[in-house]
Amino acid sequence: MSPAFDFSPLYSTMIGVDRMVDLVETALRSQDADSYPPYDIEKTGEDAYRISVAAAGFAPDELEVTTQPNLVVVKGRRTPADGEAARRRIHQGLARRSFERRFELADHLVVKEARHAHGVLAIDLVREVPEASKPKQIPIGTGLVSLARNAAKSPRAA
């Protein structure tokens, strides 16, 4: 499938736009992808987020959350209950299939907790930026002040 939009001109005219364009293309592609199970992403604080996955019908031991650098993978594996195969349903509206959903994370986001209650799997994320990566303000000196300081320290000034 070819994308409906061509972003290639942006690559040659803007620096650092490649990641943004990849995210936009991924979002456009994901509209066509399978949307099971439904999920919400919400901001719960300044540096806190929550992914809520609708996992109705799944027991906590049938769900698995794994993390990798910049990625959270949620898997649901249905195990048929005793006598489930013998049931004859007239209508089946509840999805009973296994799934795997991947969420790409921004840098420095870590999973703090995962909870399952009332058919919803909630995954709490927190941004933990290392001290070395935080922005620092560098004082800027003027050329005249720097020259005066160097001249005062120089042995030829005496």
Overview of the molecule:
The protein contains three helices and seven strands. A four-stranded antiparallel β-sheet has the order 1-2-7-6, with no helix packed on it. Strands 3-4-5 form a three-stranded antiparallel β-sheet, with no helix packed on it. Strand 6 and strand 7 form a beta hairpin. The model has no long low-confidence stretch (mean pLDDT 80). It has 158 residues and is of the alpha+beta class.
Concise description?
The chain has 158 residues and is an alpha+beta fold. 19% of the residues lie in helices and 31% in strands. It has helices spanning 8-13, 18-30, 143-153; strands spanning 39-45, 48-54, 63-68, 71-76, 99-104, 109-117, 120-127.
- Give the total of beta strands: 7
On the 0 to 100 scale, the average pLDDT is: 80
Q: Strands across the major sheet, in which order?
A: 1-2-7-6
Unreliable spans are none
Which series of helices and strands comes N to C? HHEEEEEEEH
Q: Report the structural category.
A: alpha+beta
- The amount of beta strand, in percent, is 25-35%
Number of helices: 3
What is the helix fraction of residues, given as a range?
Answer: 10-25%
Instruction: Give the radius of gyration.
Output: 26 Å
Distance between the termini: 77 Å
Please state the overall shape, judged from the principal axes of the Cα atoms: elongated
**Major sheet size, sense and barrel closure:** 4 strands, antiparallel
